[in-house]
Write a structure and sequence with these properties.
Distance between the termini: 17 Å
CATH topology of the largest domain: Rossmann fold
Strand content: 5-15%
Helix content: 40-55%
CATH class of the largest domain: Alpha Beta
Number of strands: 12
Strand order of the largest sheet: 3-2-1-4-5
Protein name: Polysaccharide pyruvyl transferase protein
Organism: Rhizobium etli 8C-3
Number of helices: 16
Keywords: Transferase
InterPro entries: Polysacch_pyruvyl_Trfase
Order of helices and strands: EHEHEHHEHEHHEHEHEHEHEHEHEHHH
GO molecular function: transferase activity
Structural class: alpha/beta
Length: 381
């Protein structure tokens, strides 16, 4: 049997965008590392959504869930972080936590020496305190036993500077085989500012486009249907949008791609206004609902990507920087900056301009696909 490979930092808390990232990685590994068993290690500081994991296993290439990455969960950790912020010691405290966890994890991390390659899940997970400590410490601990560490396309933000020293970031990221693949030009520039070899790629979820195109549309009624795929919205904003659209006879459904984040606000709002609340188990189910809609409104990056698979007009809500960047890059003609601006007029304009919008988001998808990079190069295949 061929030596196994490992995927680390898989986020299995139930975010369908993260499951799509994992799906894309598994497809890539199956194609380029055929016959090598795949062991997945999930993020240790978040729980696993068992229902969505079970649904994912039915549609994704096979893998074994081998365990979690390392964390320093401590009953007083939140208090300590607050104190560090108060006294402006965030960088020093972060560095101390990373050193301590890496030291404690190094012995157990020897298990990673048996893998032909260790592949870091793509996405935007390095930023933050608990996530950053876990990931950088795990990276250091693994690097003590193997140099076969690679990464799928990632994003980082300037908030990294707030809790990490630049020398520390440069040293830690250098444990990953070069070049680092950035999902966006901002991340590429940040890596290069640290003196690291980096190249511009694209979100690996774009590699799932052909699978997405083959998904069949969900069933729907005959009335105009709007699908709202948003997060981090106040209940009053969602209720206002529902009232404005439903008063014109528009069928509207709220769909969450991360139930644990959105349920508490969106489920009661949907029930109060007679709207559907959908919490799909897979990213393919999300695409199916998008295909059954006349307009998709989203402020999620992977919402935009999945909408590009569905071939429907998308009306972006640009209150998140990653979505605004896509709107600008794709030159999408319509957008709203706040749910307060969602009304029947702009929905109908999106329907009327369907061909233009679908063409532009498809062109953006195709350009992104042309930028796709895998950490598994041909000479390593």
């Amino acid at each position: 049997m061929k030596a196994p490979v490992a995927i680390v930092f898989a986020n299995l808390k139930g975010n369908l965008g993260d499951f799509a990232i994992l799906h894309a990685m598994l497809v890539d590994l199956e194609r380029k590392r055929s016959g090598h068993p795949v062991h997945v290690y999930s993020q240790g500081f978040v729980s696993v959504d068992r229902a969505r994991l079970a649904a994912f296993r039915k549609v994704a290439p096979p893998f074994e869930l081998a365990g979690t990455t390392f964390t320093d969960n401590h009953r007083f950790q939140r208090l300590r972080v607050k104190i560090a912020r108060l006294f402006r010691l965030r960088q020093r405290y972060q560095a101390s936590r990373i050193r301590s966890l890496a030291r404690n994890a190094t012995s157990d991390a020897e298990t990673f020496s048996r893998y032909e390659g260790v592949y870091i899940a793509g996405g935007a997970q390095w930023t933050g305190e608990n996530s950053g400590v876990s990931m950088f410490a795990t990276l250091r601990a693994m690097a003590a036993h193997t140099d076969r560490i690679f990464s799928y396309p990632v994003s980082v933000s300037s908030s990294l500077w707030k809790v990490n020293t630049r020398s520390g970031l440069a040293a830690d990221f250098s444990h990953i085989q070069a070049p680092l693949i950035a999902r966006d030009s901002t991340s590429e520039a940040m890596f290069k500012e640290l003196g690291l070899d980096a190249v511009l790629g694209a979100d690996c979820v774009f590699s799932l486009a052909e699978i997405g195109k083959r998904v069949e549309a969900a069933s729907r009624g005959k009335t105009l249907r709007v699908l709202l795929v948003v997060t981090s919205q106040e209940a009053v904003a969602i209720s206002g949008a529902l009232q404005r659209l439903r008063s014109h006879g528009i069928s509207i459904a709220l769909l969450t791609t991360c139930e644990s984040e959105d349920f508490a606000v969106q489920k009661p709002s949907a029930e109060a206004h007679g709207a559907q609340f959908l919490a799909p188990l897979t990213w393919q189910d999300t695409v199916a609902e998008m295909k059954a809609s006349d307009v998709v409104i989203t402020n999620r990056l992977h919402g935009l990507i999945l909408a590009s698979f569905a071939g429907v007009p998308v009306l972006p809500l640009t209150d998140r920087s990653k979505v605004l960047a896509v709107v600008n890059d794709a030159a999408l003609p319509l957008k709203i900056s706040n749910l307060a601006y969602l009304n029947v007029e702009i929905v109908k304009e999106a329907v009327d301009r369907r061909a233009e919008i679908v063409s532009k988001i498809a062109d953006y998808r195709d350009r992104a696909q042309s930028k796709l990079r895998s950490p598994i190069l041909d000479e390593r295949a």
